[in-house]
Task: structure prediction
Amino acid sequence: MKLPPSTHVVTEFVLLGFPGCWEIQIFLFSLLLVVYILTLLGNGTIVCAVKWDPRLHTPMYFLLGNFAFLEIWYVSSTVPNMLVNILSKTKTISFSGCFLQFYFFFSLGTTECLFLAVMAYDRYLAICRPLHYPTIMTGRLCRMLVSVCWLIGFLGYPIPIFFISQLPFCGPNIIDHFLCDMDPLMALSCAPSPITEFIFYMQSSLVLFFTVMYILRSYTLLLRAVFKVPSAASRRKAFSTCGSHLTVVSLFYGTVMVMYVSPTYGIPTLMQKILTLIYSVMTPLFNPLIYSFRNKDMKLALKNVLFGMRLSQNS
Result:
């Protein structure tokens, strides 16, 4: 039986990454390696603290622990390949490897958007409806919301990315980026598919739009409730609890919406790489710092985890 001919002749892509001489490449490698290790340690410590400290067995910290777990996978979808690519002379990635990275990068990014919306819902209930909070935000509901975030994130992109992978790629195969992203891949296709491209961007834009609008609505209602609280100490506590989440939302959504909602043809390629680096690499690094520095319970739990690790090493 004769197999049908392949729809593409390109078997691998070349990821140019960041330009520069060998010394600059070594500096970038060292910097990214340190950032990656710190990201794994920071988010991994939060996961361990939430799991081991009974005081953190609440809906807010359950969501935060799952969010930290997500960040480990999100940064791992790009940085290890970037590190290998910097040291590689050919800087190639296989056709299937490129689209697998494309799939995991967008699926994990979508899951992160949904997680941020769920965390905003949790803060809204805790501050605006404190008496009903324990009965509404139960452990079962938390687990269900987390599961829905993962399912929607990973089930939303297989079909559009499969159709993109079936487009003819005849050459050239050079991607002026450090990862396999939508715009560079579509630019290399021999027969562009505006319908597929429109569906993909519409799907991504809808996820961004609805999650960010829900987060803004939740925090508008939340801030209105906080300003009605007579106690200044209670207001400060509420602002401290929500400030960390708002900081993460602003950092992540600000850069993502510039890349995937606004037109990118006017943005220089180097700036696109820097924006992608911020939300895909730097945000997962900053999240543990943002959440731990503004939260007394988390700081105490992290100290207990780190202190316990030192004791186990010394014993």
About this structure: The two ends are 66 Å apart (CA to CA).
